[in-house]
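Exercise: predict the fold of this chain.
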Amino acid sequence: MGRIFLLMGKSTSGKDTIYRELIKNEELKLNKVIPYTTRPMRDGETDGVQYFFKDEQGYQNLKADGKIIEERTYHTNYGEWRYFTVDDGQIDLSAGNYLVIGTLESYCYIRDYFGKENVVPLLIDVDAKIRLQRAMHREDKQEHPKYDEMCRRFLADEEDFSEDKIAQAMVQDRFKNNDKIDDCINEITRYIIQKIG
């Protein structure tokens, strides 16, 4: 029986880079699970690669069909943005192991849906000052920077990943990504090998 490794952390914790490197690692043989969102695509994103981008009607259709495993709605400065995981056949635990990017909240829903023994949390920790510096650098590269949204996300993450919520979710293992991202990737790789070995 396979497992779902759920990579989570605050914005600009390095999740996307870590995800790409773990997926590329042939030793791990992790399958991708692409989440869904109603938010607009960022520069450089492609539908079906980082996310499946849906409009509100597409989201409502999936919800009406009972296909949504978990969902989060963020009330942004640009409207409601939904992020969700869909039971669309991407996950088959009899066929292998999977890597998913999510939040603490989505981890709890996915864990409850697939069973605690089948879902392994991978929490990335980064100091607040480093996260802010990374967020500014990323936003500076956008054609139309949204600094107000960047600040909202930073503050929301502080609440969403509070120590109380981490404890309630029973997430114990954490992986620091304050310095060289390769060190964090190597630590997570060893951890996954231990879990699937």
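Check your answer against the key: The mean pLDDT is 95.
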